[in-house]
Amino acid sequence: MKQENLQPKQNVTKPAVKSPLARSLPAFTLHYQVAMPQPESHLFEVTLQIKDWQQPTLDLKMPVWTPGSYLVREYSRHLQDFGAFAGPAFGDTTFADPPLPRLQTLAWQKVQKHHWQIATQGQSTITVRYRIFANELTVRTNHLDTTHGYFNGAALFFYVPGLEQQPIQVEIVPPEHWQVTTPLPAVAKKPNTFEAKDFDTLVDSPFEIGTHQIHRFEALGKPHEWAIWGQGKIEVDRLIRDTQKIIQVQADLFGGLPYDRYLFLLHLTANSFGGLEHKNACSLIYSRLGFRSPEKYDRFMQLVAHEFFHLWNVKRIRPKALEVFDYEGENYTPSLWFCEGATSYYDLLIPLRAGIYTAKTCLNALSQEITRYLTTPGRLVQPLSESSFDAWIKLYRPDANSPNSQISYYLKGEMVTLLLDLAIRIKHRNDRSFDDVMRQMWKQFGQNEMGFMPEQLKSVIESVSGFDLTDFCDRYLDGTEELPFDEYLSGFGLRLQPNLEGLPPHTGMTVRSEHGRSLIKWVEANSPAQKAGLNPGDELLAIDGLRVSAEQVNDRLKDYHREDTIEVTLFHQDELQTCSLTLAAPQATQYQIVAIEQPTPTQQQNLAGWLGSSRILLDREHT
Question: How many helices (H) and strands (E) does the chain have?
């Protein structure tokens, strides 16, 4: 089949309904200029010019969050030196302080934490200037220093309420010898100037400004780039080859690529991990030394696969609650388990399908995820749908009790997707799978970017699987029953094996060394440690009168047995205490997917259909 036959039709979106404000104004322009004359100050200097304004007031609002990261981050807290003026400002690339004499100062007031209101005094050209402090290097914030500038639109720019559909130009004034990289298209004959068709697109288009490496390549006849900032040991040719494989696999799954150009933006740091999806790009952050071992390289490729998968799932296939973004507050949905959990499941499968690693590696990675799930007590407390809904107040704000009271919708969503995929494959002998769910969601909702409701997602899964999912959803999405992994794995000749070898008796406390002290960081609910009165933040000093460090706790406990009682000496705040703790039986801290004895031909066929190989059944102990 020719490549052009693989391409989907261009996304067709319904024309936005103009607000009364938009209908009342003639065509006007929004033009931003972003300068950084003193990068060492960590201050972006931003100028907004609006022409042909005809209202007595101008309202400007800054988003409080950014799509893809579900937490109110209060971006306006980094804004300073706000000023409003009458008349044009461009041609003056410096941030004048005090304002340039020829500009008339306009009165303004701050109405809310993120909302500024300007009295325009009949002026049709309005200039706004402000600075943004940028010294937080993550994929969802801004960072500026002497090596580069990076920013996200939500964390830097205002929008005019009611006029979010207006096109916006962004001009970058970089330091000498710095280059600009962004997924936005360049404006002809205007150096370092780019245009977003609307505010959503501006928010969705990160900027990297500096002396970063740029590596261009093609995949499926379309241009792609890796833009890499920071020092690190990366074999670029291998990275590009493997990226091309990931692109091919995902394009095959969905029937083509829904963009004209794509940017992979990578920041290399001492020890970081994360990603943020965009429609035509993704921002990644990773350890600069995280490419040496095969395991760390595989983890990075899973990150690449995850964020690239999002260009379909969540950027275009998205819940109704996220169809139109409300940048002023939380956008609640119970379906983040599908947006992130299904994506997390596929980020393990895609490198396997791409030939980047083997089925054994895939199962090892899946075993690690199941281990994280089964060692999180909160899985039995918080339902998956509630985890999705409460992302705004819980997932990004962990505390000492979080493992006891909540479960990540990424993690449990991944587990639920696994079970659904296995169930569909068993029922239909691998002729159907969760791939068909994704394709149907793309066809029904993603291509035209129509938001889906939870019941519509359930209906699509039911139509593909042939199951009534009411009971499944009651138990595993809206309930907290334990997930029956072995029941679903058995059809593939696999089972889950807990590893108890060499483990000490169970205390239910996690101890870490911090600034020379052994601190209890977490106490499991209903565990021996909690029943003994131990608390997160306590400093552990001794067991049975003998000093012990965080690194020595497990070895010391191996001298004891279940139901033994030990004396634990600690500082609770600044008070010396001794508590009696009765040890429990060892509890598994690791689970491994292994082969059952003598798998049947059908089980081997099912496994081969799922992971592309049945040979892993020959190695039961080291799967």
Answer: 18, 27
Give yes or no for residue 13 having a pLDDT over 90. no
Regarding the domain delimited by 509-582, which CATH topology (the fold level of the hierarchy) does it fall under?
Pdz3 Domain (2.30.42)
Amino acid of residue 297: Y
What per-residue confidence (pLDDT) applies to 8? 35
Q: CATH 3.30.2010 spans which residues of the chain?
A: 212-293
- H/E stretch holding 595 reads strand 591-595
**Residue ranges matching CATH 2.30.42.10 in the chain:** 509-582
pLDDT at 15: 40
Average pLDDT over residues 191-209: 97
DSSP 15: P
Half-sphere exposure of 23 (CA within 13 A, CB side): 5
- 64: nearest Cα among 14, 113, 18, 15: 113
Q: What is the pTM of this model?
A: 0.92
Strand 193-196, strand 179-181: pairing: unpaired
Residue 3 confidence (pLDDT): 30
pLDDT at 613: 73
Tell me the sheet residues that pair with 119.
57
- pLDDT at 18 > cutoff 60: no
Q: How far lies 468's CA from each of 152, 307, 418, in Å?
A: 42, 31, 17
- Asked whether 561 and 583 are in contact (CB, 8 A), the reply is yes
Residue range 20-211 in CATH 2.60.40.3650 = yes
Give the C-alpha separation, 439 to 220, whole Å: 19
**Under a CB-based contact definition with an 8 Å cutoff, are residues 539 and 546 in contact?**
no
Note the pLDDT tens digit of each residue in 36-87: 999 999 999 999 999 999 999 999 999 999 999 999 999 999 999 999 999 8
Say which CATH topology domain 212-293 has: Zincin-like (3.30.2010)
Q: Cβ-count burial of 222 within 10 angstroms (0-12 exposed, 13-18 middle, 19+ buried)?
A: middle
CATH 2.60.40.3650 residue spans of the chain: 20-211
CB 170 within 8 A of CB 153: no
pLDDT for 196 equals: 97
